[in-house]
DNA sequence: GTCTATAGCCAGATAGAC
DNA sequence: GTCTATCTGGCTATAGAC
């Protein structure tokens, strides 16, 4: 019976995730989530009380998929170069499999900046401190050209994430179909790291 | 009297822009737009018939602010390097003054991909053809390291636009306040071009 | 735990006076 | 052209049967 409960609850969460990620908090409908889960609308309220609470469960789940991976680039002990090569490959691969994730998280934080505050309280929240020290050291040692860790971090994030968020726009500008665009993304798993390292390797 | 009409109409458009850009189509309320314009809700319908039509007027206006600037990097005759330096500086400066714009346009295209199709029909819609030829030529001439024009274009867009879309998230990760983040953006008006050119200059 | 039925509210849209 | 008042539909949430 605990099993049944957990199954229904996770069925709801999965359906809610599908709908919220595509439509956002404002665009999502409880009825659509219920349909997606193959159950009744009232049951959603039985398990999660309100749309808001269901949404928050989905949001925190989504965020906890995206954020911890950043700890790798921020806190691992290997060289900046090694981390950039591995991170961009892994992150682009991961987002390819969850293309709605970054747009959803960013959109909802923009809608309600309080989320950003809540999130910072959580354990495992990525912190740039160590990365900053490492970059400064490698710059001083002459391994990297002069660059601020903050700018480098923003560049890595931008190059990894934006193509997914801006996909429909980029597809239009590049005048490509779905397949060609997928190939371009596939290429980025390697060319992003090359692009970055060409720029900063001393 | 034509004047009065145009004034009311543009007052409504301005108010609608303010609200739609912040809240998006789904989050915006006609009442809020009416309040922002200092007029009555019924008047919105008198001028624009429906929320959808008012929204589309705002969307097309927003898009027509963002897109034509791309024609500079895509179609101007100066060298790739010159264009990147000028474009990143100008675009980041422009978006700094209209920070909600890119997020709004991208969000709404993601919500309704039909917009992307409609938009492509418009005159002045940016086209990458000429840029592609130019990049290929400069690569062949040994001015640039080997890079595909499509990837370079995506990189330029990503580095210019993403920091605005991802601002609350980046602020949290970097653990910076509003002021520090503004300074980082200010720096990007020059460092983005340096970052790109370091990477691709042969 | 799960359903049907419905309460209650809110938002977009319209009618009609001025 | 602009307003007040109101209709109508749709959505979240709850009541209550099973």
What's the CATH architecture of the largest domain in chain A?
Orthogonal Bundle
- Portion of residues within helices of chain A: over 70%
Q: Roughly what is the average pLDDT of chain A, rounded to an integer? A: 95
How many helices of chain A? 12
- Which ranges of chain A are low-confidence, i.e. pLDDT below 50, for 5 or more consecutive residues? none
Please outline the major beta sheet of chain A.
none
The helix/strand class of chain A is mainly alpha
- The CATH class of the largest domain in chain A, by name, is Mainly Alpha
- Shape designation of chain A: globular
The sequence of SSEs of chain A as H and E is HHHHHHHHHHHH
List the helices and strands and how they pair.
2 copies of one chain form a homodimer.
Chain A: H1 2-27, H2 30-37, H3 41-48, H4 51-66, H5 68-75, H6 80-97, H7 101-111, H8 114-120, H9 129-140, H10 149-165, H11 167-174, H12 178-200
The structure holds a DNA duplex (18 and 18 nucleotides).
Overview of this structure, please?
Two copies of one chain form a homodimer. Chain A has 202 residues and is mostly helical. Chain A has two domains: 2-55, Homeodomain-like (Arc Repressor Mutant, subunit A, Orthogonal Bundle); 67-200, Orthogonal Bundle (Tetracycline Repressor, domain 2), CATH 1.10.357.10. Helix content of chain A is 80%, strand content 0%. The first copy, chain A, has twelve helices and no strands. Chain A has helices spanning 2-27, 30-37, 41-48, 51-66, 68-75, 80-97, 101-111, 114-120, 129-140, 149-165, 167-174, 178-200. The termini of chain A are far apart. The interface between A and B is large, with 56 and 56 residues. The structure holds a DNA duplex (18 and 18 nucleotides).
